[in-house]
Amino acid sequence: MTDIENSAECRIVDAIVGTIDEANKHVSLFNPDVVISAGSNASYLKTALNVPVLSIPVTESDIVSAVAKASIVSRNVHVITFDDYSSLVELLNQNTAINIKHSRYETAEEAKQIYQLSKLTSDNVVVGASLVCGLASQNNIKSFLIYSKESCRAILKEAAEIGRNQRDQIHSKAIHRWLNEDSKTPILVVDNYTNMLTSNAAADVEFAIDSNSKQQILELLHSSQFTDISDGKCRLNQADWWFHKDTIEMASHRFEIYQFYAQTPSICAAPSTTKPTQPLIYRSQIMGNLIERTDLYAHSPSHVLIIGESGTGKEMIAKRIHQNSQFSEGQFVAINCAAMPSELFEGELFGYVEGSFTGSKRGGKHGLLYEAENGVLFLDEVGELSLPQQAKLLRVIQEKSYRPIGSHKEFKVNLKIIAATNRPLADEVKKGLFRDDLYYRLNVLCINIPSLRDRKEDIVNITKSKLHALNFGELSSETLENIALHVTPIFETYDWPGNIRELENIIERLLVYCSVHQDPDSKKVTELLQELAPELFVDAQIETTGELAKHEHELVMQAMNKFNGNKELVAQFLGISQTTLWRRLKRFSKNNQRGQQHA
């Protein structure tokens, strides 16, 4: 039956179902849209299953045809059926020379009992369903099925049609559910006949829709900024949105359907004519070696992975690579992967052609890959990409080409990719949170930027540089040098969990207050720092050796054991911040390492 095979997948199960669990077990293995059975099996399955069950029809013509075939083998024919055909059998006995006996059953067990009680011999032939024919076959007695090819073909066609309708309904419900509940795109529908407003779940959340705000939103949608255009901008719930409007006619009503897309800040690409970035400030050997490796990697066309804590200057390293590379004539295009919504990622990266989706910009849009052609694409916080986003990025790297949304044309791309992260990507790969193939594609050349606490000899130069860069013109160079002289010893005792960005923030705070003191002395600077950045002095107030340090270590370790290593609960219990707890644990670890080295 080629026509059925092309429209439906069929699975034959040769079994007699005894319990509901048995029935559901068979169904769960195949997950059918429709079940076809016959006789008592069909009657039972209709009550046991949640899927439609069709029973193979048996016409009087089918019975006559089966009896006629059986009579060729023997004149003694026993018809055993689920349905009642006694009138037909009586009529056949009166008008033919065949000796026909008819028995009727309601369950499979009853069918077996009737067969056993019949004590059939080789002079008999059986007509019935597959269950009865199977029993006869076990006893070497001839049998004939009551189902005709025509009846089976008809029921298969009916089942295929019901299955298609079932699938269509499921797909329709899936689309309806996605639009109403799962879609991240806010959608509003206005019935212009009743002036009713309907919203999906995303709109309810984004626009804070309730019974009071519906009227306000309706008034906005009826205003002039929405009336005569299908695409535009608006402001709803203190946020800026793009919108697209469609109008449809249904059941004598006209509906206006609005889809909204958040206006994301445009990502500015730095042209090659921009001023060079600020030079990196350092004097430590560890940074000297890193800069040498950075400049070496800049001359390679290979991709680079930069790993470092937040605030260590990963983007500055990336820009240095760009300026010293063969791609320096192209643009440096940066994208913050952590701030890019999944639904916008593909459009921002690849761009799109006009009309590729509802709400697309007229004339289409070039993506970031187009902007970064012959330049550098900087993927900041690449570890924040979702797995579907990672798959799209991987294809670009592998194929060195991309296809804008809605386009049928592939575009080759020539650029250098620099990715940065503060996450341990190797661990993320083991956890299944980051694709291993993408990790190895990005990690061709790797740069690990040390934290500020690991290069404290650079603090003095960085402090002086930031003081001059952030000065608001109120303080003289001599005063700035004097401030640097006072703060550097304090800065060098701090571990800087926020690295250079944290140092920069503290300096900016300090300069605001120092602007009213033209020549602040050491005491005043210290007092200001204690007020503006008390975290700088926490470790200095606690001895790191002797009985006090020992008692502190025991107290922290007891709390860590008590709360199974939950640092948030430990910090609350000890009455300190999580940052302070983190510094204590790091200090204990260093002390243990030093103790082991001297042991």
Short description:
The protein has 25 helices and 20 strands.
Topology:
Layout: H1 2-5, H2 20-30, E1 35-37, H3 39-48, E2 53-55, H4 60-73, E3 76-81, H5 86-95, E4 99-104, H6 108-118, E5 124-128, H7 130-138, E6 143-145, H8 149-182, E7 187-191, E8 196-199, H9 201-206, H10 213-221, H11 224-227, E9 231-236, E10 239-250, E11 253-262, H12 285-298, E12 304-307, H13 314-323, E13 332-336, H14 342-350, E14 351-352, E15 365-366, H15 368-371, E16 376-380, H16 387-399, E17 401-402, E18 411-412, E19 416-421, H17 425-430, H18 436-442, E20 445-448, H19 459-470, H20 477-491, H21 499-514, H22 522-532, H23 546-562, H24 567-574, H25 578-598
Parallel strand pairs: 1-2, 3-4, 3-5, 5-6, 12-19, 12-20, 13-16, 16-19
Antiparallel strand pairs: 7-8, 7-11, 9-10, 10-11, 14-15, 17-18
Relevant terms:
elongated, 599 residues, alpha/beta, 25 helices, 5-stranded parallel β-sheet, 5-stranded antiparallel β-sheet
Strand content: 15-25%
Query: Alpha-carbon distance between the termini?
Result: 84 Å
Strand order within the widest beta sheet: 8-7-11-10-9
Mean pLDDT score, rounded? 82
Spans of at least 5 consecutive residues whose pLDDT stays below 50 are: 265-275, 540-546
Shape: elongated
Rg, rounded, reads 39 Å
Biggest sheet, open or closed, and with what strands and sense? 5 strands, antiparallel
- Number of contiguous helices: 25
Instruction: Give the number of DSSP strands.
Output: 20
Q: What oligomerization state is this entry in?
A: single chain
**DSSP helix fraction:** 40-55%
What structural category characterises the helix and strand content?
alpha/beta
